[in-house]
Each structure stands twice: as structure tokens, then as C-alpha cells.
Amino acid sequence: MKNIKNHFFKVIPGLLIALSFFYAVACYSQTVKRHETVKKCLIVSDIHFDPLFGSHRDTVLKRKLQNASFEEWKQSFESSDPQMMINASLLYQDANYGILKSALDNMKKRLPHPAFIIIAGDFIWHGAKPADSVLKRKCIRFIARLFKEYYPGVTIIPAMGNNDTYGKDYALQDAAFFNDFADAWSPNLPKPSADELKAQGYYTTETGNLKIMVYNSALLNAGTNYPQAATMLNWLQSNLADAKTKNVWLLTHIPPGTNVYNNSNFWNPGYTQTFINTVVEYAPKVKLSIAAHTHFNDFRVFYNIANEPVSYMRIVPSICSNHGNNPSFEVAEFNRTDGRVIKETNYYLNLVAIPKDKTKDALDWTDTLNLPSTLKLSKVNAKGFSEFMDNAKADHSFALIDAYRKFYTAGTNIDSSIRVSRVNYMKYLKADSLKAK
Fold it and tell me: Which of 154, 256, 287, 379 is deepest in the core (most CB within 10 A)?
């Protein structure tokens, strides 16, 4: 008996060591498995880079930039105090070089090796005129070159915004713009996608098990009735039908639905309903829709005719702080197998905390907003956002509305009758619902 006990106590430590080893192996395997399954991408929007920031009356500088090289642009901006300034005075202004470079530095720090980069349009500054076409072309090429230098070899998937045109704001782009835009992003924009963009102004690209369809919201704008719009919507439906085993993300600049800012439609109402019906029809394939334009964080939920939430769109905030928002970019984590987003993190720079008489270099964008946690979503999906709206309407403490307000403005909490508040939040929640008919 004594020998048995001695043997037992000798064996126990070995068993514990073995169990610890197998547990560690199991944990490591799960970590590796999750790492292999979960991928991360960057989502950026509304850069609105102003090469004449603080110097719009300087005609000499304008002519100089029109004829300058990429390196000469950088040297010009780096020697300019207005271009390098980063403080609270940037609120309600387009992006200068300082904030663009700071954004890229922080993107590289937070996600040095993204699966891909999505940019949801509006690279050109506000107020640009048709006569500025040379500067517009160089502006887009300059931004594209910066992204390609920070992320060599990474697939970049850009959409065109309403400011991204050689015509007036919201004007439909011409063939020359399509060609220049596609060339600016090559080779990071794959050649088949670039060729498709040049031919028609919208395109598809594939990465892993994901098919991303980039459509041109300039064709869908309210007050327009372009014949090409029907062609593009048919193209969208055809590509969704042909996606088969692929998971689909949809990307554009201007979102569908109501613009609460002025209570108008973003798109032609007929095109809006056709698009909603298409997304609902192919909801099992459409794992995410992305738009921008408002400069704020928001979302849309697509409902089928039974009023069930079946798909959703994320409206992502901007790099520029022209609308009083903090500059922000997003890291999205998604399941590479089924294409569903698991988590979103907005990194933003709290400009209000930087006094106007202070300029800081090498700023860390450490403030974050996070989905699902910021809005207390059950999951980052259509049902989660729909439940949030229901819960927010019933929350008399306004805790969820206050969270929505902070989320919406990327942390600035603006007091305004035309921003989300405890008074007008119902208008915003109503605009967030898109229903099939």
C-alpha cells in the first residue's frame, strides 16, 4: 500500500506537467486558428486634402504646385506652418498636410500589415473649381503616392466622392477623370479592377473569399436621372447573382436614404428603392455595405418586406474635420471565411484638447470608439443595429442616445440643432431604416 501511495505521488507531478503542456498547446492552437480566421483592414474616408491650406489667395504658390513634383509638394508643405499645424483650429476645415501625415503615421502604427485598404471617396478639397483640374489631378496622385509609400504592395480599393471630379461638385466624372483616378492608385489597385474603372466608373475586386463591388454614387444623386444609373444597378444585381460562393462587400461614397441635415434625399428616390430591394434580395451574400460623405459615424439597416433586419451599411467618419468632427480612421476585424465584421475600432484625434495656440508633432491618435461596445450592440450586424434603435427609443435615461451622439461625431459631442441630440435623435434613427417594397 505504501509503495502504491509513493508511486501515486511520484506520478501526479508528471501528469500535471503533461496536462499543462497539452492545455498550452490547445490554447496556442486556438490563438493560431483565430489569427488565421480573423483578418484586419483599414477603412478611410473623406480626406479632403487642401494643397492650398491657408494660402488660397497665393496665386504664385498655386502655379508652383501645378508644375511641381511629388517631392517638391512634400517639401513645400513641410516648410509651411499652416500646412503642418495640428490643433483645435482645424475643426470645420479641410485637411492640411500635417493631419494627413499624422493619420497615415497612426494607421501604420495601429495596423502595419492590413489585408487591404478601403477609401470611401472625397480626396479633393471643398470649393475646388473646374479650372483647378490640374491641381485636382495632382492632389489625388499625391494622396495615392503617400498611401502606396506607407503600404507598398497592399491592395487599395478607392471609391470616388462627389468632390472627386474635374467638373463642379457633384458633377458626373468624365473618361479623363476615370483614367487618371485609376492610374493614380495602380498598381495597388489590381489591373483588372483599374481597367473596369476606366471603362465605366465602377468596378469589382477580389481578395481571398471576398468580392468588393465599388459603385459610383455620382450616378445616383438626387435631382439626377442619368441613363447610366440603370446600367450600373443592373451590373450590381448581375454581379451579386454571379457571386456564388463569394462573400460580398459593397462600397460607395454617398449613402442612400434621408439627409437629416436638410431633410432631403441623398439619392434619386427610384434608384434608392431599387438598390434597397437588391440588397435585401441578396442579403445572405452582402456581409457589409460601406459609405461615407457625411463625415460622421452612422449606419443604415435594410429591412425585408416582413420588417426583419437582413443587412446593414456603415457610414464611416472622415479624416478631415470640416463638419466639426474629430479626424478618424477605422480598423475593421472580419472573419475571412464568412466575410462578416466582428469588431470595428475608430481611432480619432481629439482636436478640442489641443489649444489653438499650440502645435504638436507626432501625435498619437489614442482615443477610440468601438463596435459593438460603444453602442452596446449584441453583434455587429443588422439585427444588432436594429435592436440598438429599438432600445434607444425606449431608453428614457438617454444613455444610449448620448453614446450614439459621441459615436456620431467621433468624440466631439457638438451641441447643434443639426447634429444628433436628445431633442432630434428620432429623425436620425428614422433615417437609419431602409425598407424593401
Answer: 256
pLDDT tier for residue 252 given thresholds of 50, 70 and 90: very high
CA distance readout (Å), 398 to 376, 388, 405, 406 = 13, 12, 10, 12
Contacts of 317 (CB under 8 A, 6+ apart): 45, 46, 292, 295, 296, 297, 325, 326, 328, 330, 346, 348, 410
Neighbours of 428 (CB within 10 A): 21
Residues 290/316, Cβ–Cβ less than 8 Å: yes
How far apart CA 90 and CA 52 sit, in angstroms, is 14
Place of cell 502655379: 63
How many CB atoms are located within 10 Å of the residue 23 CB? Answer: 10
> Would you say the C-alpha torsion 339, 300, 275, 193 has a positive or negative sign?
negative
Q: Considering the entire predicted model, what is its pTM?
A: 0.91
What strands, in cross-sheet order, belong to the sheet with 286-291?
203-207, 210-214, 247-251, 286-291, 309-315, 298-303, 433-435
Minimum mean pLDDT among 16-30, 120-134, 186-200, 308-322: which range? 16-30
Name the residue among 168, 166, 161 with its Cα closest to residue 179. Answer: 166
**In terms of Cα–Cα distance, which of 244, 242, 295, 281 is closest to 94?**
295
Q: What are phi and psi of 10, to 5 degrees?
A: -75, -35
CA atoms within 13 A on the CB side of 231: 9
Alpha carbons 196 and 206: distance in angstroms, whole number: 13
Say if strands 247-251 and 286-291 run parallel, antiparallel, or are unpaired.
parallel
Sign of dihedral through CA atoms 123, 125, 126, 132? negative
The SS3 of residue 300 is strand
Domain boundaries in the chain?
32-205+317-435
